[in-house]
Structure formats: C-alpha cells, structure tokens
Amino acid sequence: MAQKVIRIGNSLGVTIAPEVARAYGLELGSTVVVEPTKEGLLVQPATIRPGLSLRQKTMVKDLIKRHRSVLDALARDERP
User: Fold this and answer.
1) Averaged pLDDT in 10-residue chunks for the chain of 80 residues
2) 33/53 same-domain check
3) How far is CA 1 from CA 4, 19, 20, 65, in A?
4) What is the CATH number of the domain that holds 25?
5) Number of domains the chain contains
6) Closest CA to 42 of 19, 14, 23
7) Distance between CA atoms of 34 and 11, rounded to whole angstroms?
8) Per-residue pLDDT at 6
9) Domain check: are 25 and 54 in the same one?
10) Where are the alpha helices (DSSP H) in 1-80?
C-alpha cells in the first residue's frame, strides 16, 4: 500500500488506513516503533510494559528516602 509522506508540524508522517489500524489494534494515541531495516522502514505496534506495582512503587520510594543525600549529590554531579 503506497502512502504519501505528509508534514505534521516540523515533522513528517504517514497516515495509516483505518482497516490496517484495526487489523493491528492501533487507535489514536497508540505507540508504534519505526526501525530502519535493509529492506526499508519497519513500523510495528510498540510493546509497552505495565507500570510498577504498588509494592514496587513503595520499594522505590523507600530507597529514595534512605539514600536521598547520595541521589542529590549525584544529581549535582558531586561525590557524597
């Protein structure tokens, strides 16, 4: 299926026909990966990993709380 490249703001884009979007589960706001290959450009739906669980979020917050001074020093590019 041939598509024209169009201008979208300062970028370029290609439209996806509704039947193709449906076939691949794409909808407005979906994320796709565009990769150059030897054959051309590969466009495919992105695999999005789910966010952190409540337990994982609690662990991260605890880690940040315990090591705040070190993290702040690293953010300032200093040694603690």
Assistant:
1) 92 93 92 94 87 89 94 81
2) no
3) 10, 12, 10, 54
4) 2.10.260
5) 2
6) 14
7) 14
8) 96
9) no
10) 18-23, 54-66, 68-75
Determine the straight-line distance between the first and last CA of the chain, rounded to whole angstroms. Answer: 58
Contacts of 1 (CB under 8 A, 6+ apart): 17, 20
Asked if 65 and 80 sit in the same domain, the reply is yes
Domain that holds residue 15: 5-45
**pTM for the whole structure:** 0.52
Phi-psi region of 8 (alpha: psi -120 to 50; beta: other; left: phi over 0): beta
| Residue 30 sits in the same domain as residue 54 | no
Place of tokens 């407005």: 28
pLDDT at 33: 93
What is the C-alpha separation between 46 and 21, in angstroms, rounded?
Answer: 13
Query: Same structural domain for residues 54 and 76?
Result: yes
